[in-house]
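Example record

The entry below shows one chain as it appears in the dataset: sequence first, then structure tokens.
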Amino acid sequence: MSNPKDNSWQQGIQTLLANTHIAFLSTQGGYTPESSMCPYALYQGYIILHLSELAKHTKNIRNNQNVGLMICTAETNNTSPLSLARLSFTGMIEAVPETEQADYQKDYLQSIPDAEPLFSFPDFTLHRIKIASVFWVGGFGKARKIPLETWKSLC
């Protein structure tokens, strides 16, 4: 585990979030866990996903709202996979209430402007993950659990 007095992990998290807009969502399928790639954004400590009702992960969420999510630094030829910074989350996912859609959509589109046409598709809905736990790995031997209040202050 990393040195508790070393705050470079906070900068590492902010760098990862600024440079990565793809996450891997884990949901519970009929018999096994299933993973899928999802663009994400942040809003007031929530992770925001814009999901199609036609997607398998959305169907899984209807049956079980417990999810896992990972945001990971992209691998390069010059980087060992062991040194890649990453964040892992667990939590409950829910559709964003209709009364809050506009604020969430604004932040989502600031992060992922190419998604704007998808908001005209009737099967796409914004979802938010109510985070239960956050775990940071800044590379080999650099790991820590992030308290939820600290997470909210970082994003």
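Notes for this example: The radius of gyration is 16 Å. Helices lie at 8-19, 56-63, 101-111, 148-154.
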